[in-house]
């Protein structure tokens, strides 16, 4: 019987420092960077929790590079992350869903070490209706082999397999942070009474199977034939009781898949022939997390983290989740 009075209390930043110890040559820069992200998400969640009484509901009245209407909270979240990470030069470049171009904090040639790529607020359409939303982040190293350049673009267009860290925060019934530095997936919950993330799961493993599929079936008629065949199977007697869960916030749909197993699909559609989700700061970080937890992520053609990006805001089809469930979806493709 676990005695809660004897269980150790480990904060997320303590855990991050412990992970750092396994890299004797580490100088603490990545730990500092991750702590900056934690701080930013604590500030973001303080706005999310009071959205209805602050003037942060609704749209900003502008559209972003994605052509999407920008919500006020998108901007607040974006500026919060930029401000929490932008003052120390170990962060060389920041890439945000909300900014057309990368923000060069310190050019790689003059010492900028890391690239932080993020979706500051994922699931914006759910802000006004009090449904879970989140923040997704990915960390790459600036490439020493590249000539220093003003835009930093070449440094950013690296495969997901090059990520050194990734994670997300779900602003749900509680505020849960999950992260990896390539040594497993670990989760912590924000204790709002003390403003600290407290670790509650280490080396979390995604179940190898799960009878939940997650996709927006409104687009079903324009999904690839293999996906349509899979969906017909999943609803059949033969499949034996699959359920559909779709929150419309990738980060929340993925978090459920991470904990309960199952599969999330955002296939190509006629509206988004390349898929809707962004490769660099939505699909890649979650693919890193999925693989670290024993799951898989693909773009329906190959390993997602092997894709070489060609543009900053490139979209990709995404199929991610339990190994057996992803294999089952792909078994319906000829
Ligand atoms: P964002 O709010 O950052 O633009 O992301 C929204 C994404 C993702 O969170 C979600 O899975 C997907 O959009 C939902 O798209 P549909 O409304 O087309 O299902
Ligand atoms: Mn998003
Ligand atoms: Mn977003």
Give every kind of bound small molecule, once each.
2,5-anhydro-1,6-di-O-phosphono-D-glucitol, manganese (II) ion
- Rg, rounded, reads 19 Å
**CATH architecture term of the largest domain:** 2-Layer Sandwich
Number of helices: 8
Classify the secondary structure makeup into a structural class: alpha+beta
Q: What fraction of the residues are assigned to beta strands by DSSP? A: 15-25%
Q: Supply the CATH superfamily name of the largest domain.
A: Fructose-1,6-Bisphosphatase, subunit A, domain 1
Please indicate the count of domains.
2
Order of helices and strands: HHEEHEEEEHEEEEEHEHEEHEEEH
The residue fraction in helices comes out at: 25-40%
Largest sheet: 8 strands, mixed
Gap between N and C termini, in Å? 51 Å
Estimate the mean pLDDT confidence: 92
The CATH class assignment of the largest domain is Alpha Beta
- Under CATH, the topology of the largest domain can be stated as Fructose-1,6-Bisphosphatase, Chain A, domain 1
Catalogue the unreliable spans: none
């Amino acid at each position: 019987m676990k005695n809660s009075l004897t269980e150790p209390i480990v904060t997320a930043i303590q855990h991050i420092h412990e992970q750092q110890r396994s890299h004797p040559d580490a100088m603490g820069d990545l730990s500092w960077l991750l702590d900056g992200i934690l701080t930013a998400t604590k500030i973001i969640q303080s706005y999310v929790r009071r959205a209805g009484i602050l003037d942060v509901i609704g749209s900003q009245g502008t559209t972003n590079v994605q052509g999407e209407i920008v919500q006020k909270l998108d901007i607040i979240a974006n500026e919060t992350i930029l401000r929490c990470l932008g003052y120390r030069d170990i962060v060389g470049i920041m890439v945000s869903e909300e900014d057309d171009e990368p923000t060069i904090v310190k050019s790689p040639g003059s010492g900028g070490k890391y690239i932080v790529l993020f979706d500051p607020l994922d699931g914006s359409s759910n802000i006004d209706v009090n449904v879970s939303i989140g923040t997704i982040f990915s960390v790459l190293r600036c490439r020493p082999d590249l000539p220093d350049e003003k835009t930093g673009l070449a440094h950013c267009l690296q495969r997901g397999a090059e990520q050194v860290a990734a994670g997300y925060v779900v602003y749900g019934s509680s505020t849960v942070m999950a992260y990896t530095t390539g040594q497993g997936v670990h989760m912590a919950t924000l204790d709002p009474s003390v403003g600290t993330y407290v670790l509650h799961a280490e080396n979390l493993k995604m179940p190898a199977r799960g009878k939940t599929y997650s996709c927006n079936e409104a687009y079903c008629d324009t999904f690839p034939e293999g996906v349509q065949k899979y969906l017909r199977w999943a609803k059949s007697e033969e499949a034996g009781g699959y359920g559909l869960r779709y929150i419309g916030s990738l980060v929340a749909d993925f978090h459920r898949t991470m904990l309960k197993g199952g599969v999330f699909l955002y296939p190509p559609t006629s509206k988004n022939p390349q898929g809707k989700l962004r490769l660099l700061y939505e699909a890649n970080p979650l693919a890193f997390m999925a693989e670290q937890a024993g799951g898989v992520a693909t773009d329906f053609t190959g390993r997602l983290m092997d894709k070489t990006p060609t543009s900053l805001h490139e979209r990709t089809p995404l199929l991610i989740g339990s190994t057996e469930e992803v294999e089952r979806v792909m078994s319906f493709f000829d």
